[in-house]
Amino acid sequence: MDNSILLDKDSLICLWDFSATEPFRSKSKYPYTLIPHGDVSIDDKCVSLAEGQYLSIPRKDCDALNINGKDAQLTVMAWIKRQPKSFVQCEAIAGMWNETEKQRQYCLFLNLRLFDSADQVCGHVSAVGGPTPGQKWCIDASIGQTAVVYNEWTFVAFTYDGFEAKSYYNGRLDSRSLHNPYSYDHGIFDAGTQGSDFTVGAVHRLGEMGNDFVGDIARLAVFDKALTDVEMERIFTSYF
Fold this sequence. Notes:
By secondary structure, the chain is mainly beta. The protein has one domain (4-239): Jelly Rolls. The chain has 2 helices and 18 strands. The strands form 3 sheets. Strands 1, 3, 4, 6, 11, 12, 13, 14 and 18 form a 9-stranded antiparallel beta sheet that branches. A 7-stranded antiparallel beta sheet has the order 2-5-15-7-8-9-10, with no helix packed on it. It has a two-stranded antiparallel ribbon with strand order 16-17. A hairpin with a 4-residue loop joins strand 7 and strand 8. The termini are close together.
């Protein structure tokens, strides 16, 4: 499938489409390679993740994905087919998000279950690395309105422009009062050299990897710019 609409963007950091002879190698200007953990399978140009399986890149090997600072911008997007899990839990798609060591930066999630939500696209951001001040967990996130269903290909994404996070469902801003867009002008945490790895399909929390995403990922891309509503819609219509 033609990836030119993504590859032509100067802000693209990484694009994985899990095809060809090196399915875990990014096809963009930063050819970072994802490392599979567990018996991860590749089939028909997508990666399939079961519970306990995930992908990662050590922090030292993916400097461009270490997006941080007061003026940081980013976009994370993925083409997914979600599958049921054996228990209800947050589902991490991709980002740098280590809760155990208080090294949260950014991460695309599903199903955070904050503020009477469930199953929606969520864009987690943190300027402090640890929990939101006064809270047990980090609760800073854009949370959409529409549930991501099982067994159906869906385009999920979030952006952060230094002022607000936005969650997108199938190319459109999935608006939700107070929570999408989510106002947050504090920037992204700088965890230094010892911060989080880049992980796909799980994050480190409570001393171990968890918050598994179960299902297929056909394409994953990260940008160092917050793409616009128009750009997101064009990307969606180019593939669906």
